[in-house]
Specification:
heterodimer, A: mainly alpha, Alpha-Beta Plaits, 2 domains, 46% helix, B: mainly alpha, three-stranded antiparallel β-sheet, 6 strands, 9% strand
């Protein structure tokens, strides 16, 4: 199988159709504009041919992400907790400003946790988190099936 | 004539130029600009501006390094809302990789944890200002020092953006204290979905002043049912 696969960005696509002409397997020609990964050989000719730069070649296996030091993670965690608390408070307040602050804090918190080691869903720590949920969450309405499905779908890319 | 710089977006107020289209003639001193004057680019209040000091005159600051001792925090013991954040962040990570199915699954988990999070008992705008103050005075300087020591540029990137966004939230809250809901009466409120920058007005800038993403990544905040 190929190491890379082609992805079309529909926002950039201007229907020049060079990708349809050059694809050896017909992977780029689909009714929903999503390139067929099953047929794509990763040859990259479509990406090179597209005059709008709408196709990217993406690797199938991602490298291990950069590690963050313990100290950095701890310092980021302090800020993460503060932003989460601010989200919680603003969620209880009325009005457009409160709604904007709630959203803004959620976005900042996501960015902070991302740079505290949780950038990729494929990482070992994300998998450990998911497995931990299966052990700990005992409520009937906890979506166990979602966790099980994620563990089945997401390969691990950096387990030592 | 001094130059006073906005710490959120980099806009420079040059005293020798003023802002004539806003009624501030050239030569208008910083102190003489009205107290409610805001940065024309990003909306930050005067508090978020600092004077630009020429390199030759800049003293080497002999501040004591920020106190980095923090109590042990265990990343494993996340509150429900923190788990929601982790899941919504991983959902984004899936979306960026065009893995829509996985993204939806993480979003389901994020929603579950958010709905399981106990609401704040007595929420007040003043509490937001307190936490913002702590972030700007302690949390962020400590984190930037620690990340700088090990040259963790990814962490520094997140810290630079979130500090600027935190300053904008502080500006908006202090304006809200004085102007109340009239501030938003007939005006749009937009949030940058990439960095969290908040813009109040009808014409969002073409690029986010903090992260420079094109403004089609902004989300308009409509009224909400709480």
């Amino acid at each position: 199988m190929a190491d890379m696969y082609a992805v079309r960005n529909i926002r950039l696509c201007t229907k020049d159709c060079l990708c349809l002409y050059v694809c050896p397997t017909g992977a780029t020609d689909t009714e929903n504009s999503v390139i067929d990964v099953g047929k794509c050989t990763g040859c990259g000719v479509c990406a090179d041919s597209c005059p709008s730069g709408a196709i990217s070649m993406v690797p199938k296996t991602l490298p291990a992400q950069q590690k963050h030091s313990e100290q950095v993670i701890k310092a980021m965690d302090v800020l993460l907790r503060s932003k989460v608390e601010q989200e919680r408070i603003s969620a209880g307040l009325e009005g457009k400003l409160a709604a904007a602050i709630e959203r803004s804090n959620r976005i900042m918190a996501e960015d902070l946790i991302r740079e505290a080691g949780y950038m990729l869903p494929q990482s070992a720590n994300a998998h450990d988190f998911l497995r931990g949920l299966l052990d700990r969450e005992t409520d009937d309405d906890f979506p166990r099936d979602a966790v099980e499905r994620l563990l089945a779908l997401l390969e691990e890319n950096d387990r030592p | 004539m001094r130059k006073i710089v906005c710490s959120v977006c980099g806009y420079v107020y040059d005293e020798s130029k003023g802002v004539p289209e806003a009624g501030a003639a050239s030569g208008t001193k910083w102190e003489d600009l009205p107290a409610d004057w805001v940065c024309p680019m990003c909306g930050a209040t005067k508090d978020e501006f600092t004077e630009q000091v020429p390199d030759s005159k800049r003293r080497v600051a002999k501040d004591s390094p920020p106190d980095r001792s923090e109590s042990e925090t265990d990343m494993q013991e996340l509150s429900p809302l923190e788990m929601s954040v982790l899941c919504s962040n991983l959902a984004r990570g899936c979306e960026k990789q065009y893995r829509g199915g996985e993204a939806s699954l993480f979003t389901r988990l994020a929603d579950y944890f958010k709905s399981g999070s106990a609401p704040s008992e007595n929420p007040r705008f003043a509490d937001l200002m307190d936490l913002i103050g702590k972030d700007l005075e302690k949390g962020m300087p400590v984190a930037k020092a620690v990340a700088g020591d090990v040259k963790d540029r990814g962490a520094l990137r997140a810290l630079v953006w979130s500090e600027k966004v935190t300053r904008i939230l502080k500006s908006l809250l202090s304006r809200y204290e004085k102007e109340g809901n009239a501030m938003f009466e007939h005006t749009g409120v937009y949030v940058c979905t990439i960095c969290g920058f908040v813009y109040v007005g009808d014409n969002p800038p073409a690029l986010c002043p903090v992260c420079k993403v094109p403004n089609w990544k902004f989300e308009k905040i409509e009224g909400r049912v709480s």
